[in-house]
Amino acid sequence: MAITVDVKGSMQAVLADIGRVRRDVVDKAVPRTLNKVIAQAKTAASREIRAAGYKLKASTIKGALSTRKASAVQLTAVLTASGKPIPLIQYNARQVADGVSVDVKNGRKIIKHAFIAVMPNGHKGVFVRVGKKHKKVTRNGKTRWTGLPIQELFGPSVPNGLVNKKVQTALNRLMKEKFPVILRQQIKHLSRTR
User: Fold this and answer.
1) How far is the C-alpha of 39 from the C-alpha of 183, rounded, in Å?
2) Cα–Cα distance between 93 and 126 in angstroms, integer?
3) Under a CB-based contact definition with an 8 Å cutoff, are residues 91 and 104 in contact?
4) Which one, of 28, 31, 44, 21, lies nearest residue 172 by Cα?
5) Residue 96 β-bridge partners
6) pLDDT tens-digit profile of 129-155?
7) Beta-bridge partners for 155
8) pLDDT at 143
9) E-strand spans in the chain?
10) Taking the model in full, what pTM does it have?
């Protein structure tokens, strides 16, 4: 999932409002502005995704977000979220009497018959047994009962959070508000330094 800063309308309005500006100043100011706005959108995305109910650590969200900067040739800055569904253990999972309690979205829920386990490789997760009953297994001449196989459970990914309507609305509003303000600042700064 990606969010792109749309500048055409805002840029024309700012330039019309400011009046005459040298072309080389505009050529430098626009990409700088785009990059500042997309950096602010990245910071806001983490906050907005959590505000929309996705109970993830800020570091987990920030780690899944990346930006592609604008340049004089490519007047587009892009915020991208990538990643797979996130292990349910990261959603504040707690073992309770009848399963595992998780805080994924809109309050805690209990997943019945789930359990928290640490695998031999050290990976900790929330799991459920596949199949209804334990099975008798014979290995190396020894018979025992096993609850395998088990399956790990996952919650929504960061891209799921970024496509959330509330998150999209908040980020688009932020970018529309910030772009003209930062563009004016950049033009003023660059005009003084030339």
Assistant:
1) 14
2) 8
3) yes
4) 44
5) 99
6) 876 666 666 667 776 656 667 889 998
7) 86
8) 66
9) 2-4, 65-68, 78-81, 86-87, 94-96, 99-102, 109-112, 115-118, 124-129, 135-139, 142-146, 150-152, 154-155
10) 0.74
